[in-house]
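Possible race condition, two jobs.
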Amino acid sequence: MRRLTTLAALCSIAALVPAAPVAAAPPRAAAPAQATAPARATAIVLERSGGFAGRQESFVVDRTTVGGERSLRLAARPEFRRLRGSYQPANPCCDRFLYRLAVTYRDGRHKTVSTVQGGTAPRILWDLIGEVQRVGVRPMPFSPGT
């Protein structure tokens, strides 16, 4: 009974003593939108050269390209943005195509990645190369004097 009386006394004292004020936490600064959302890709240029005939071709995808939305989304993904600049095989022989992707982002940054046909590179790189070749616009070749 004595314990119960002591407990009741302590609870009533605690109820009467004002709580110490708690300092308000300083307001947190909002993170910049750019840090949370990846910059959108606005243009992609794929240069393909080599092969048996030594051809050189370009493919361009931008915001006006019909069907180009998937290419621009792939190029904006973090997996693509983290790629190294080059994926080259140990043995560069034979008549393979060389690929060079140059991407421009809305924030003004650029990313360039190159590889060789049949080389080992992350799937997102091959997916983007295939998509840009499929929907990209081939610029008209320049002919001096015309």
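Job #2 (started ~2 s after job #1):
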Amino acid sequence: MVDKIKVSLEDVLKNTAWMENTTRQAALEKLKAMSLLNTLPEQGYDDESMEDEFKDMIMSTKNYYKNKKTIDREELKSNLEKLRQPTERSDSAGDTSVMNAKYYKDRNQIGTFYVILYFC
């Protein structure tokens, strides 16, 4: 899957008329240097793990704003817990329970997890 994404991006870069050649070359070099970050979900997807993960998130069937505030609060709490912890390039790209594949420009990486790659 990631190889297909990189091939597609390379094709777009090579055929983009508005881009200057020096910019195009720099973009192609960056694309070739792009690494892949594969992660496994930290917790399983069984009912017990999901219940434990989201036990503090009480959602409403009628109030989108309240749901959004609840999600934002839980995300902030999670991010604050990670704030002072050391990170490495090989660390997980994010919460794999809500992502499938994403480009991280600060690391020049495509993050995905094994479950997706297995079925591609």
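Residues 76 and 109 are 24 Å apart (CA to CA).
Logs attached separately.
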